[in-house]
Amino acid sequence: VILNEVWRQVQEGVLDVTDVDKVMSEGLGPRYAFLGALETAHLNAEGMENYCERYAPTIYSVSESMGPIPRMEGATLQEVHRQLCERIPLEKLQERRQWRDACLTKLASLKKEVEAMPKTGLKK
């Protein structure tokens, strides 16, 4: 679902590939490394009911405006591929994968540290 929507954003010229990746990695993405989508929403308001009172109509309205599932092919595929290759050339994929894996290893280590911390606010 996420890939479909970010594809649509690029296809419609709303965002480019760099913007999509920035929104995901610097927006809610860091929270999702430690919390799920529903707990994030629960914490972003005075509970989930309050979150839905505040944001559900807008979320619903935006969701209604989304078109059909985009096909990942054709001109949009070529443009997404071009933009990605500008940032990460094909011959650098293995190097980038190693960087990604090192980051994930560090994140896993950090998550272990966080898991050892007191679970403030959680029901026992």
Automatic annotation (TrEMBL):
One of its GO terms (biological process) is fatty acid metabolic process. Residues 2-79 form the 3-hydroxyacyl-CoA dehydrogenase C-terminal domain. GO terms for molecular function: oxidoreductase activity, acting on the CH-OH group of donors, NAD or NADP as acceptor. Pfam families: 3HCDH (PF00725). InterPro entries: 3HC_DH_C, 6-PGluconate_DH-like_C_sf, 6PGD_dom2. This is Lambda-crystallin.
